[in-house]
Amino acid sequence: MGDYDLNIIFRSDVEVELVKHSANDLDVVFAARVSTRGENAESVVSGKEASGLINFLMRERHGSPFEHAYFTFRVKAPLFVWREHMRHRIASYNEESGRYKELAPEFYLPDSERKLVQVGKTGAYEFVDGSTEQHAITLVQMRQACERAYHAYREMLAYGVAKEVARMSLPVNIYSSAYVTMNARALMNFLSLRVSAPDSAYPSYPQREIEMVAEKYEQIFADTMPLTHLAFVVNGRVAP
Length: 240
Known about the structure:
This protein is of the alpha+beta class. Helices cover 42% and strands 19% of the residues. The N and C termini lie far apart (56 Å).
């Protein structure tokens, strides 16, 4: 067995960084106005006019003008979160590859606020707080499993086993990072499904860890396109 230092890191957060964007409330206004004003779509528009038009588009589900505002994020999250995230095929992804790079020993552990127990049947259930004993056994078993798995991974690499083979021993709570690019309409669709909010017209019940990513997306969205975000919320958080 190897005698290397594994330096395993356990954490309970996710990272979301806005790398670049072409996103502004006026992007939506100009895209909508071109249908009636043609080349004069980008003439001066007041804040009140912009707010009213964006709210109209959101309320009436005219979605295409929102497709002209783009965000690129760098996201670091556990692998099981990525499996859920990539179900959203309205985004473009480039994820780090375990075939070509040695994966860092960073693993997600649920913190003490994470609800552990599922009550009810499929389609009609909720999560409730676990007991002290349930939290303790979860942390102990996850830590031990991660340590054993990463030690096996490094041991195989030390013997010359290819990265794409050695990675098969790693659990789904290992962290992975990716670039994610989506337009504002796609982002609102993501938020409508992955954030549990009391003012949603259609309630959503996301897994907590992907909701953590979505909450960070939403803060960036609100800061970057405040009129569009407000219209999204006021109209029941329904993607247009």
